[in-house]
Specification:
By secondary structure, this protein is an alpha/beta fold. It has eleven helices and five strands; from the N terminus they run βαβαβαβαβααααααα. 43% of the residues are buried.
Length: 232
């Protein structure tokens, strides 16, 4: 781990920069990402890690808001590291880096708790925007791309059974909200469809994530696919 700065105390509503941890076994990639992100006045790169084990340690020590996680690394890879980071108390958001837009590893990372993924050839301006969106807790995988990914790499039968069992314990309204998440709708769009206030929708989404054991909206959307609430 290098280029690290200690985490400041978290202050609700503070305007401090978005703290980002870079994880990639190619140091030139980290240097490139750091150069791009450092030009944004509201983003601070707080550290770099070069394998999955270092990434987990750095996430604990630095408490970043967001981790840009490479997938293919020697030793502990990005898949295992994503699962470990997302299992931390008050975990940072994780966006995985991949080379191909239809990558089975990217899907596995999403199942492990990643909020989304981006391609390594992403335009620099788009990268900055993705970091901002991801740090706010929004999914960074489009609905269209989600359908392609999960259609190309469907869940195994045990995962589908588990998803159906989880959904079976939901109320009718909760199932409706989960279906909307699976369709990629925003809170405002869900409210419009179900005739609910946006505040009420936020409450439903928070309770759903806790009830289903999902780390984020992306995982909940994936579960909706696996349970058959949304067709591919």
């Amino acid at each position: 781990m290098t280029g690290a700065s200690a985490a400041p105390a978290r202050r609700p509503g503070s305007r401090r920069p978005i703290r980002v941890l870079l994880v990639d076994d190619e140091r030139m990639v980290c240097a490139h990402l750091r150069a791009i992100l450092s030009r944004a006045g509201d983003i601070e790169v707080v550290g770099e890690a070069y394998d999955g084990a270092e990434a987990v340690e750095a996430a604990v020590v630095l408490a970043p808001d967001l981790v840009l996680m490479d997938i293919r690394m020697p030793g502990v890879d990005g898949l295992a590291a994503t699962e470990r980071v997302c299992a931390l108390p008050d975990p940072p958001k994780v966006i995985v880096l991949t080379t191909f837009d239809l990558d089975e590893y990217a899907v596995r990372a999403l199942r492990g708790g990643a909020a989304g993924f981006l391609l390594k050839d992403t335009d620099p301006d788009d990268l900055v925007d993705i970091v901002r969106v991801g740090a706010e807790g929004h999914a960074v995988v489009s609905h269209e791309l989600t359908r392609r990914l999960f259609g190309a790499f469907p869940a195994a039968e045990p995962a589908r059974h588990q998803a159906r069992d989880l959904v079976g314990g939901l109320t009718e309204r909760e199932r409706e909200v989960l279906t909307c998440l699976g369709e990629g709708l925003s809170n405002a769009q869900i409210g419009g469809r179900l005739f609910l206030s946006e505040t009420t929708v936020k409450g439903y989404v928070s309770r759903l994530l806790a009830k289903l054991g999902c780390a984020n909206r992306t995982q909940a959307a994936l579960l909706a696919y696996d349970a058959g609430l949304v067709t591919r």
